[in-house]
Amino acid sequence: MAINGDFVSKTTLFLVGLIAFISFPAEAAVRKYQFDIQVKNVSRLCHAKPIVTVNGRFPGPTIYAREGDRVIVNVTNHAKYNMSIHWHGLKQYRNGWADGPAYITQCPIKTGNSYGYDFNVTGQRGTLWWHAHILWLRATVYGAIVIMPKQGMPYPFPKPNMEQLVVLGEWWHKDVEEIVKQGNNMGLPPNMSDAHTINGKPGPLFPCSEKHTFAMEVESGKTYLLRIINAALNDELFFAIASHNMTVVEVDAVYTKPFVTQAILIAPGQTTNVLIQANQSPGRYFMAARPFMDAPIPVDNKTATGIFQYNGIPNTVLPTLPQLPASNDTDFALSYNKKLKSLNSANFPANVPLKVDRKLFYTVGFGKDSCPTCVNGTRILASLNNISFVMPKIGLLQAHYFNISGVFRTDFPDKPPKPFNYTGAPLTANLGTAHGTRLSKIAFNSTVELVLQDTNLLTVESHPFHLHGYNFFVVGTGIGNFDPVKDPAKYNLVDPVERNTVGVPTGGWTAIRLRADNPGVWFMHCHLELHTGWGLKMAFEVEDGKGADQSILPPPKDLPPC
């Protein structure tokens, strides 16, 4: 199994980019990038196809910044599809215009047009990522964001000798947009992916993939920081490296209390930084990623692999595979997530809201709409509190800022219309799901607790929810129905993990808390692209505060027209 020298150039590129970045002056800088959205033929799994890329690269270029920097990314769209880019996990304080989700904070960038995303990196450091936020284009339009700490501020863990990006994704043989269109016309889920990838490459367990294998060369005795991103569209993934433990030190660009694990679980939209020591017998070891799914739902269960290779070891040595958890290992998933805790140090405190001004309870459900032209006469839909979200024709933030009436309502309910045994026997009846563009209005600087409750409407399933414009604290989680009397007593209000994307367990619930101190319109949705397309999404309208720096900034002059 010979692997070509492609990994040397890739790793060198990352290190050269990082060294060049670190050599920048200490004061806050302006980082400028040009993103050209263009189609390029890319070959995987024995055949080539045209894909949408940034600058012809797959995955796309990495954004490097330091905490406190200003970043300007000019995006020019040369592809046939409308485009928007979301900077996943960046808080965009008062600056929703730079957030990126199409028809939420902006209208998309049309073919031949440009838009400059201009934002500050304030109070954040770590690994985040960017991706297309329209249609399913993020299947190939994605890349990493690396935010270094302020000059003179060390990592709160042993300094690694080197760093490496590990971006997990999915690959389809055919045009993804055509596959989605076909599924929608039939009223069925589109075909699942044909492979998973590590840094855009499926690895040698797939045909024609010896030269499409990511490899990372390491030196005995050195410590490496892996910045791991799950850019897959629809799959939570286990990740491990054969015979090597990992120490988790950060998730979603927030430091955690370190803990050692043989494998990690990472949902679409999430990032995880781990330290790994090259302390085993020099050889070649597989790194591997495979889906986690503990509901009776088909997934692409194929394993992507890369190679963790000690220097001086010939490519003829066969790598060993890691022992990944079973694909339905619920116990591992729950145990792993329970270990995630905020660092909660003097420099990086966990400012958990202890008093709650507004309590929200949202149920997650599936249903069916009548569709005479569909295969079964129905089309699957998804909802929060029995409302399947309808995307508007203009950006919600524009409608909010300019007081444009008739675009959305602000009566999204704080709780479901009818309580029921949410996780009991499967319910096939449609509970009269409503359709609408309905937002929840939140007072500025109020504290909010949101409980997300999975249900057995058609089926239970885990859901990774992402909230734009905010981090939040995951104060509690459990299996079964949330008990508003007993369960809050078990909350962790001392050092809960802080994130921007959280999994709601299959047949269970998750409780989060946050302070609504970022005015604007902020999207919340399941980060499984399949479910988002079915309507599993909503938005919060956070009101302006009364202070001079507590209202939405004016829109940029080059905001894309609707």
From TrEMBL:
<dbReference type="GO" id="GO:0048046">
    <property type="term" value="C:apoplast"/>
</dbReference>
<dbReference type="InterPro" id="IPR011706">
    <property type="entry name" value="Cu-oxidase_C"/>
</dbReference>
<comment type="similarity">
    <text>Belongs to the multicopper oxidase family.</text>
</comment>
<comment type="function">
    <text>Lignin degradation and detoxification of lignin-derived products.</text>
</comment>
<dbReference type="InterPro" id="IPR034289">
    <property type="entry name" value="CuRO_3_LCC"/>
</dbReference>
<dbReference type="InterPro" id="IPR017761">
    <property type="entry name" value="Laccase"/>
</dbReference>
<keyword id="KW-0964">Secreted</keyword>
<keyword id="KW-0186">Copper</keyword>
<keyword id="KW-0560">Oxidoreductase</keyword>
<dbReference type="Pfam" id="PF07731">
    <property type="entry name" value="Cu-oxidase_2"/>
</dbReference>
<dbReference type="InterPro" id="IPR034285">
    <property type="entry name" value="CuRO_2_LCC"/>
</dbReference>
<feature type="signal peptide">
    <location>
        <begin position="1"/>
        <end position="28"/>
    </location>
</feature>
<dbReference type="InterPro" id="IPR045087">
    <property type="entry name" value="Cu-oxidase_fam"/>
</dbReference>
<dbReference type="InterPro" id="IPR033138">
    <property type="entry name" value="Cu_oxidase_CS"/>
</dbReference>
<dbReference type="InterPro" id="IPR001117">
    <property type="entry name" value="Cu-oxidase_2nd"/>
</dbReference>
<dbReference type="InterPro" id="IPR011707">
    <property type="entry name" value="Cu-oxidase-like_N"/>
</dbReference>
<protein>
    <recommendedName>
        <fullName>Laccase</fullName>
        <ecNumber>1.10.3.2</ecNumber>
    </recommendedName>
</protein>
<dbReference type="GO" id="GO:0046274">
    <property type="term" value="P:lignin catabolic process"/>
</dbReference>
<keyword id="KW-0479">Metal-binding</keyword>
<keyword id="KW-0439">Lignin degradation</keyword>
<feature type="domain" description="Plastocyanin-like">
    <location>
        <begin position="37"/>
        <end position="151"/>
    </location>
</feature>
<keyword id="KW-0732">Signal</keyword>
<feature type="domain" description="Plastocyanin-like">
    <location>
        <begin position="165"/>
        <end position="312"/>
    </location>
</feature>
<dbReference type="Pfam" id="PF00394">
    <property type="entry name" value="Cu-oxidase"/>
</dbReference>
<dbReference type="GO" id="GO:0052716">
    <property type="term" value="F:hydroquinone:oxygen oxidoreductase activity"/>
</dbReference>
<dbReference type="GO" id="GO:0005507">
    <property type="term" value="F:copper ion binding"/>
</dbReference>
<keyword id="KW-0677">Repeat</keyword>
<feature type="domain" description="Plastocyanin-like">
    <location>
        <begin position="411"/>
        <end position="545"/>
    </location>
</feature>
<dbReference type="InterPro" id="IPR008972">
    <property type="entry name" value="Cupredoxin"/>
</dbReference>
<dbReference type="InterPro" id="IPR034288">
    <property type="entry name" value="CuRO_1_LCC"/>
</dbReference>
<keyword id="KW-0325">Glycoprotein</keyword>
<keyword id="KW-0052">Apoplast</keyword>
<dbReference type="Pfam" id="PF07732">
    <property type="entry name" value="Cu-oxidase_3"/>
</dbReference>
<dbReference type="InterPro" id="IPR002355">
    <property type="entry name" value="Cu_oxidase_Cu_BS"/>
</dbReference>
